[in-house]
Structure formats: C-alpha cells, structure tokens
Amino acid sequence: MLELVSTTAVSVRFGSRVALDSIDLQIPADGSIIGLFGRNGAGKSTLIRVICGLINRHDGSVHTNGDIAYLPDRPMWYPWLRLSACIELGAQLWPDFDVARAHTLLATLGLDERSRVRELSKGMSEQVHIAFTLARRCSLYVFDEPLAAVDPLTRDRVIELIQRERQPGSTVLISTHLIAGLEALFDTVLVVDAGRVLLNAPVDVLASPGSLEAQIKEVLA
Amino acid sequence: MLWRVEYRKHLPYFAMVIAVTAGLGIASAIAPDVEVFSVLLTMSTLVTWTATIVYTSACTVRFLTLGDDLLLHVSSLSPWRLVTVKALVLGSYMAMQCAATVMAQSPHISEVVGPESGRVFTYLVAAKLVSIACFLISVVFAAAVAKTIRQRGPATALFLVALMILVAAQAIVLWHLGAPETQFFFIGVGGDFTTVNLYANVLPLVLTGPGEGFLPPVAGLSMLLNAAVAVAIALVTAGLVRWRRFDHTEL
Questions:
Q1: What is the pTM of this model?
Q2: Is B84 on the interface with A (CB under 8 A)?
Q3: Are A28 and B222 in contact (CB under 8 A)?
Q4: Are B1 and A85 inside 8 Å of each other by CB?
C-alpha cells in the first residue's frame, strides 16, 4: 500500500531535551482516521511538525507522498479578514485550495462570507479553520488538537465536519487529549510518550475497542 | 491578495507616522515663523524613524526567526519568498515615509541650500532609499542567522547582535574610507542642511568639515558602500538558505 508518510529513526532535540527519539512511522494511504494520543509534552506536536515539513533540522529521514493539509493547535487566520478574503488568500497560499469547495463549506456552516474572523464565536472559528483546511484537495489532513477548548456540541460538529467533508479516500491524523466518546471515530491509534511511539495499532485489533481510553492509559502508565 | 494582506498589516503604523510627519510639515510650511513646529518636526523625524527601524526589525525577526504568523508558515509558499514579500512591503512603506519626511523638510532645505536644492533633494532621497534597501537585506540576513537557534530569547539576542555588528562595521569602514582628517563624523541627522547626511546601512551619520559644500565625494561613497553591502549580504543570505536546513515553526 502507498505510504503517505514514512519516517525512519527521526530524532529531534531542543537543546538538551529530546523531543522525538528515533521515530519509525508509516502513515498509509488507506483512508483511515488516525488518533494521535499522548500527554502534554510527549512529542505529538513536534511529530506533526516534522511530518508537515515545518521542522527540518532532525536526524533520520522523512519521506512524504502528496500534499499535506495541516491545521495547527491555535487560530491562524487574521481576525480582521472577512471570510471571503480568507478564501481569496487561501487560493494564493495553497495551489490545492479549492475555492468553490470553500464557498460550499461556509454555506454548509451557515456563515455570511462578509463576516470577519474576529466576529465568529470560538466554536464557529474552529469550524471555519477546519473547513478551510478541508477545502484543500490533499491525501493527508493533519489536525493538531482540533477538539481542545470547544464545547461538547461543537466537538460533535467538528467531528462530523471532518468525517463528512474530507477528500474521499484521504487519510486523517488527529492529535487529541480526548478519548472518551471518540472511540468510534478512529481506525488507528498512535500513542507517543517521551518522544517515542508506544503503540501504533488498528482499533479493531485491540482487545476491547469499547474501552480504548483504558487501554491508552494502560500503555501510558 | 497576499500583497494586500501584507499592506493591511502594516497600514496602522505607517499611516500614523506618515500622518504625523506630513502634518508637522504642513504646519511648518503654513507658519514658518512658529518655531515650535520646526522643532517638533525635527524631533518627530528622529523619533518616527527610530520607531520604524525597531518596527521593521521586529516584524521581520518575529516572522522569520520566531515563527510568528502561523498562517504563512503552514502555507505552501517558501518562507524565503514570503519574507521577501514582507521586506518589499515594509520597504515601500519606508519609501513613503522618506518621501513624507523630505517633503516636510523641503521649504527649509530650499531656503538654506538655495540653487543646489535640486541636487540635495535627489541625494537625500536616493541615499535614504539605498540605505533602506541595505537595512532590510541586513535584517533578513541577521534573522536568518538567528534562525539557527531554537530558543526565543537567545535567537532574538543573536539577531540584535548580528545586526549591530553589521551596522557598526559598515560605519567604521565608511569612516576610514571617507573621512579626511579635517572632518568629523557623528551619529545623527543634521537638521540645518549645512552639513552632509550620510548613511552607514541605516545608521545616519553627519559629516562636518570646512569647505566641502553640500555634496562632497564621501556622499557618493556612502551610497556606493550601502549598495555594495546590500548585494554582498543578499548573496551570503542566498548561500545560507541553500546551505542550511531551517525549521519554520513557532519558537
């Protein structure tokens, strides 16, 4: 199977701190949704940044196949921009940004494109960020903590948006602290701690998929 | 759209400094006998240009070295292309500020310099524009050097040190190449235009000396030196970008 990302012995150090320690990882082009779990400071964001090509000073090698759409763990669109201007800008920033799809996604969210980003509620801003990321035609979507700091209702909307609107056949990698209630979302579980991959397995081969949270806690213990 | 967004980001700051300069220039022209306007104009020129140097440096180092402005960093465009866009936008705003400054000072220059005022205007604008270009290229170079460090504080400190060494070295070279023993250099701008304003990178220097007139050979030399340094640093920066791997993430 084609691999979208393949890392071999990737290590990253920030001064004396080892952020990633000899990571070997393959992300296949199988249309799965991968959950990336780990404590704060475990190396999740660093791993994502290596995969997305933002951290280039590392040991080991990283090979990617196809474009990756990445949404960081904090707001990135300028608050003073109107949504219509965001779409125009997106088309310039990414060659795979589908303008028509971005308009459709905003309409799906029921948003007026004349609104400015700063006028959106926190939950709606998160959904707009995800919509603009999904407007790119990519084979891999990477979301860093998209479910943090949103209420349960918004969380469900965000999950639905990702499941429904991603490019058909594309793979999704979601970094999150939340496990409870999300068991059905993920096809594969990736657990990192202290810069190392502790678990990388399909959910359906884990002993009891219904208690994913307990299993991840056990791995991290 | 990218250019429009970049211009929009810096509009509040530059609109303010250009409005202050233009306003005081107009006030001085309307009421030339009111000394407070000319004093304020001189002071505001000093303050606004110092602020602009700090502002443009901060914008560049925050984007390139510290990884702020996430949207651009996660885009498909090269950060080096993006920093070039940013530098050109900042440079064009600085050129507008330069035009506002020279226009505000024009009545006074014409009065003091008389028939040579055309040449002095041309020199002032050209020298300032070359110094702005040299400065922006130096800032990008210093930010690229500082990008090799992965901690916010030390990276910022390295940026400042690299930029200061570059400017100081250029000032010393200009001093040695261009100053006959009978003349004196000091840092600052001569507001009376009976002296020559020079730029070592972006650092304003004033040359005073007997019998040199308004535009002695050292004025041309300072512009040539700035242009040569700009080209050299641009080439070194291009080499650095090719030679080293850089992270493009927030520190």
A1: 0.89
A2: no
A3: no
A4: yes
